[in-house]
Design a protein that fits this description.
This protein has 273 residues and is an alpha/beta fold. It has 11 helices and 8 strands. The structure holds benzoic acid.
């Protein structure tokens, strides 16, 4: 079993971080309406090229579906995630895989691993240097770090309109509620190199992502992923903010009875040298 980092809070050399900003995860909605989060990540397994018998960590594993895909490659895989609800579902769904609650900024493993894999998690953690330092420590020499997450320009239209709307509704300082980190290739590669990694591949690309549930797709996305922002305002204004945002985004992101999120992905592989 993994040792959750929380058990080792006082071990050096970790800086102690405050808890992650508030974001409530509805795991049922996450699995039912947003499967694309892990389904798109499946192709990242090719970048990882897992070899039978390797020890691999899935960092920010969510409900564990990609962790289970990795397990099919005959590797010894475990998953960590900061959200207890996500880990509870992962443990229940895949009882043969080891999962633990841990903070990506300050986790520690019982033994170093061959590779660390991460899909659609790191855009939730602005403290990239801390994550990268933890990843570096947890890898064997020569170990690989393979990650995909939102990159520079991700959800640009969605974010711009949402924050503009919140300002119109009387929240001029709402930018400070933004929980997301979308770096460029240069920015993230620099962080990796400064930590001692060699960056072996990196790419930033558009991935327009169709949302499920027709007309309700964008609304559901905001309720699922932006609740840490919206929960700062009263419920009636949340509904108003979403309606106003939808109206402004409709000409840009709605076509043929469905919404498409303006995702951009950053993919990197790096080697611990
Ligand atoms: C993303 O996968 O790009 C993403 C998901 C939730 C919030 C922000 C970005």
């Amino acid at each position: 079993m993994l040792n959750p980092a929380v058990d080792r809070m006082n071990a050096k050399p970790f800086k102690i971080f405050p808890p992650m900003p508030h974001q409530h995860w509805n795991t049922t909605l996450y699995d039912r309406q947003h499967q694309f989060v892990w389904q798109y990540g499946e192709s990242l397994i090719e970048w990882l090229a897992p070899q039978p018998g390797e020890h691999i960590l899935d960092l920010g594993c969510g409900t564990g579906h990609l962790t289970a895909k990795l397990a099919e490659k005959n590797v010894i895989v475990s998953g960590i995630d900061a959200d207890p609800a996500m880990i509870a579902v992962a443990q229940q769904t895949y009882p043969n895989i080891s999962f633990a609650i841990a903070d990506a900024r300050q986790f520690e493993l019982p033994a170093p691993v061959d590779a660390i894999f991460s899909n659609a998690a790191l855009h939730w953690i602005p403290e990239a240097d801390a994550v990268i330092a933890s990843v570096y420590r947890a890898l064997k020499p020569g170990g690989r770090f393979v990650a995909e997450f939102g990159g520079k320009g991700n959800i640009h239209a969605m974010m711009t309109v949402l924050f503009r709307t919140l300002k119109q509704l009387g929240y001029p300082d709402c930018d400070r509620w933004n929980p997301w980190y979308f770096p460029s290739v240069a920015e993230y590669a620099t962080c990796l190199e400064q930590a001692g990694f060699e960056v072996t591949q990196a790419s930033l690309f558009d991935r327009p992502t169709p949302l499920q549930d027709g007309d309700a797709g964008l609304r559901n996305w905001f309720r699922m992923f932006a609740n840490g922002i919206l929960s700062n305002i009263p419920a009636d204004q949340q509904a108003q903010a979403i309606e106003m945002t939808e109206a402004q985004l409709k000409p840009v992101l709605y076509k043929d009875s469905g919404w498409t999120a303006d995702y951009r992905r950053l993919r990197v592989t790096a080697k611990k040298v």
